[in-house]
């Protein structure tokens, strides 16, 4: 705690204690891959059953990721098993001929974009499967690229295809995207913009030069959350674009990091030290969430991977210099700010000064809780809704005590509004937790 509120970086470093236990709650979100609708149904049922058993709600968040303009390979032919071995120095053909859509081999690999051969040039480099395999184009025909394998590896079905410095002329969204959106609505995962999904968070996945060039338009040039038609956050595929987007552009926008976080745990139960350092640095640099993809989708140790990442996140969060982070974010807040933002700023500052155990945000739309969370208080954002203001505060207090977030006698900062609805947050006060109610 003393390290988090130190007045200088030197004091912060000196006060860090390797023996200090991490926080009881992880602040950074972790996303994992779920491949089938049936799995999602089972997860929802498990969350419901567990909530009923414990007598309190345990919310489960599920997001649907649209395929979008992604170029992928086809399916590996059954005779080869799950993957083919593309060996360095040999030749392989990339074709858009649908005859090979489900018959990819060591000699021919299908590409799902029919104009791929028209838009790639001789000597271009092509990466397959998150840059694990590198090809160089030697010859081009109407539907086929003949490539030399510069860096070989095992290629599975439906892997991504990436060509540096080329913006492909493709539709903004495909028929597959429409199917995914309809499926998402049916299973209450996400909604379309408008009445069906105005309260649903929209995360922009930026991983192409075209996406980067339209960065401001994608984010809506907004410093607030949940505004209409505004992106709520951005997910960056690091190996392609992370170095091009400056921290200043990401101020007040949720940032999600994906790709190659715990790759070694696909086959091994123990991660590499460099991967743990990578995760810790993501947390220290301000990431809001981390994504595990292949590690949990096809890896041998999915549970161990999530457990390892959660543990690493907790340890890294304990090293954050919260005071400096808060002041840096305040400096980037536009002046004048609205009353909800002003109240959120005051709440986080008072929580720091009073060493409050929690910040309780009484909210009906969730916007106030998001604004408070934006300024990185050292508390996990968990929102719940009841009708009466006093009942909600007492409910939150009892729930926080049961979950171990706070103890009896701890100071709590309460953020609320003078009336129900969005945009009326203007009240901040300190109360003390008792066993049954919050005492002012």
UniProtKB/TrEMBL annotation:
- What reaction is this protein's catalytic activity? pyruvate + ATP = phosphoenolpyruvate + ADP + H(+)
- The segment(s) forming the Pyruvate kinase C-terminal domain are 389-431
Keyword list (alphabetical) reads: ATP-binding, Glycolysis, Kinase, Magnesium, Metal-binding, Nucleotide-binding, Pyruvate, Transferase
Q: Could you state a single Gene Ontology molecular function term?
A: ATP binding
Domain of life of the native organism: Eukaryota
Task: Please state the Enzyme Commission number of this protein.
Answer: 2.7.1.40
Q: Record keywords: Ribosomal protein included?
A: no
User: Which cofactors go with this protein?
Assistant: K(+)
Q: Which residue range or ranges hold the Pyruvate kinase barrel domain?
A: 35-306
EC class of the enzyme, as a word = transferase
Which pathway features in its UniProt record?
Carbohydrate degradation; glycolysis; pyruvate from D-glyceraldehyde 3-phosphate: step 5/5
UniProt record similarity statement: Belongs to the pyruvate kinase family.
Q: What is this protein called?
A: Pyruvate kinase
């Amino acid at each position: 705690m003393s390290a988090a509120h130190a007045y200088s970086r030197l004091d912060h470093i000196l006060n860090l204690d390797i023996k200090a236990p991490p926080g009881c709650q992880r602040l950074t979100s972790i996303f994992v891959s779920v491949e089938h609708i049936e799995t999602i149904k089972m997860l929802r049922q498990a969350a419901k059953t567990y909530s009923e058993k414990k007598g309190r709600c345990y919310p489960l968040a599920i997001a649907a990721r649209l395929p979008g303009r992604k170029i992928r390979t086809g399916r590996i032919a059954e005779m080869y098993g799950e993957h083919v071995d593309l060996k360095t120095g040999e030749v392989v053909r990339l074709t858009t001929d649908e005859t090979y859509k489900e018959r990819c081999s060591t000699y021919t690999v299908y590409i799902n974009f029919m104009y791929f051969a028209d838009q790639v040039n001789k000597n271009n480099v092509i990466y397959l499967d998150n840059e694990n395999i590198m090809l160089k184009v030697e010859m081009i025909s109407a539907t086929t690229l003949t490539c030399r394998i510069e860096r070989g590896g095992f290629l599975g079905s439906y892997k991504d295809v990436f060509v540096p410095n080329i913006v492909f002329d493709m539709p903004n969204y495909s028929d597959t995207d429409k199917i995914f959106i309809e499926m998402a609505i049916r299973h209450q995962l996400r909604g379309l913009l408008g009445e069906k999904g105005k309260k649903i968070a929209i995360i922009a996945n930026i991983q192409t030069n075209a996406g980067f060039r339209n960065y401001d338009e994608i984010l809506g040039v907004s410093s607030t959350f949940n505004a209409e038609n505004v992106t709520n956050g951005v997910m960056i595929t690091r190996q392609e674009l992370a170095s091009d987007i400056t921290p200043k552009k990401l101020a007040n926008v949720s940032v999600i990091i994906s790709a190659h976080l715990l790759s070694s745990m696909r086959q091994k139960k123990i991660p590499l030290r460099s991967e743990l350092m990578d995760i810790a640095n993501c947390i220290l640099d301000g990431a809001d969430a981390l994504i595990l993809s292949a590690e949990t989708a096809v890896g041998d140790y999915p549970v161990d991977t999530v457990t390892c990442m959660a543990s690493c996140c907790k340890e890294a969060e304990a090293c954050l210099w919260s005071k400096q982070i808060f002041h840096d974010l305040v400096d980037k807040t536009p002046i004048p700010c609205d009353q909800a933002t002003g109240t959120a700023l005051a709440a986080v500052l008072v929580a720091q000064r009073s060493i409050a155990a929690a910040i309780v945000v009484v909210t009906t739309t969730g916007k106030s809780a998001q604004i408070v969370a934006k300024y990185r208080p050292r508390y996990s954002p968990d929102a719940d809704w009841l009708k009466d203001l006093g009942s909600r505060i007492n409910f939150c207090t009892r729930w926080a005590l049961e979950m171990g977030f706070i103890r009896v006698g701890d100071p709590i900062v309460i953020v609320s509004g003078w009336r129900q609805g969005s945009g009326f947050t203007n009240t901040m006060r300190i109360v003390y937790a008792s066993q049954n109610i919050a005492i002012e």
